[in-house]
Design goal:
256 residues, Rossmann fold, two-stranded parallel ribbon
Amino acid sequence: MLVFLTGASSGIGAALAREYAAQGAALVLLARRTEALHALLEELPGGAARHTVFGVDVCDCDALQAACMECLQTRGCPDVVIANAGISAGTLTEFSEDLAVFEKILHTNLLAMAATFHPFIAAMKQRGSGTLVGLASVAGIRGLPGSEAYSASKAAAMTYLESLRVELRTTGIKVVTLAPGFVRTPMTAKNPYRMPFLMDADIFARKAVRAIARQVSYIVIPWQMGWVAKLLRILPNWLYDRALVNAKQKPRITPP
């Protein structure tokens, strides 16, 4: 099995890489932080003989497309492509300096997902099989105060993945939406609020890899957050607003 994975240098991405490598898969790993990526490569079973790494920022579309094409030419068409790269920060529309952060989050969490999938679809169609996996979030189900960009990007990712899933239904290509709850990563370490059902990244990765193998269309991990997600969907606006109006918010990026 060949797995193509973005955002692989830490957090959920690194945990997914370790889980797939432990199961004998060959990996093509992308991340911005080249040193961390190479450090991960050294600890994976098979090392550089089995796996390939690219130091690429997924927001650099040309570099991302070049890495995808090199994968196709040298390793073949992946069995699984996981668009995992994602960033998060508090954003408030009232501050002009947050608009650039808003754009970066949307580019990384949504537009780069499409750019990651695009090069592989034709080859997967020709083969008649393949799995495209996108990372959404429970944060995309209802808008969280202070997380305007992050919630918007994940809500858009879920809708995009649903559109893609239906479009590709008759091609043999499966589309899987993973919606993590709270997973213990460097990203969530900055959250100043209580995180119910917080899960270690390696446990999340094991459950996610099993879900991908089953080619489920959509799954919330852990399952307890799935029930929270169902509740959030049906809450009337007045009750949701009252419950969240005084909630602690993710810190904004303070400009220098």
